[in-house]
Write a structure and sequence with these properties.
Helix content is 81%, strand content 0%. The protein has one helix at residues 8-41. The chain is rod-shaped, with a radius of gyration of 19 Å. The model has no long low-confidence stretch (mean pLDDT 91).
Length: 42
Amino acid sequence: MTDPVDPEPERKRIQRSRNLVVGLLLAGFAVLVYFISIAKMG
């Protein structure tokens, strides 16, 4: 009982791209907070 199409690589590819997007959003948010705090101090 084997599936003709293995969904595992597709699922891993989707998960990796989603992790990349979440990481970029988090980094962008951190940069935004950093620049806002620099602007408030100045």
